[in-house]
Design goal:
The structure is a single chain. By secondary structure, this protein is an alpha/beta fold. Helices cover about 50% and strands about 15% of the residues.
């Protein structure tokens, strides 16, 4: 099984995913961003883009990597990864379905002011224009398709541990 934890920057995906992994037996965290980083390391580089998800190889490589890891280890993959383009989510989820891999899709949500405050106050990454530019695309995806495609966990007033507990209970229940 895959527990996909979606949401925009500042929602708490990375922190929450590590906590979810501790709560679900026989689970591992697989950050699909590493697949994008591998593609970014190709020299000479792939065609220019502001987001590696726009490269057509990224999506099937995420599916194939997840499938291979699950074939090897079994259990559950907890995948923290923002996907805001509906077409990309459909491609990934259809690819996983072709391999009979069940997916529980969660979106960590917070209001725009909370997200902005978290990004601006991030002591690890610091304030990030890159992360801030995804606030409006996230809001649009949430309105138009994303919240209808996932189980929404509003983290505006939750700690990461509380969000992780809700996700783990939903998966186990």
């Amino acid at each position: 099984m895959i527990v996909w934890i979606n949401g925009t920057h500042g929602a708490g995906k990375t922190t929450t995913s590590a906590l979810v992994q501790r709560l679900i037996p026989d689970s591992r965290v697989f950050d699909a961003e590493k697949v994008g980083e591998t593609l970014m390391d190709i020299r000479p580089g792939l065609p220019g883009t502001d987001n590696f998800q726009h490269w057509p190889p990224w999506r099937p490589l995420v599916v194939e990597t997840a499938r291979r890891v699950l074939d090897y280890t079994g259990g559950t993959l907890v995948m923290p990864m923002t996907v805001l383009v509906e077409e990309y989510w459909r491609e990934i989820s259809a690819g996983l379905a072709e391999h009979d891999i069940p997916v529980r899709h969660f979106v960590l949500h917070a209001d725009q002011d909370t997200l902005r405050g978290r990004i601006l106050g991030d002591t690890v990454l610091g304030p990030s224009p890159f992360r801030l530019k995804y606030l409006e695309p996230y809001a649009e995806a949430a309105r138009s398709w994303l919240h209808a495609e996932a189980e929404v966990v509003d983290t505006t007033h939750l700690t990461p541990a509380q969000a992780a507990q809700r996700i783990a209970e939903a998966v186990k229940g």
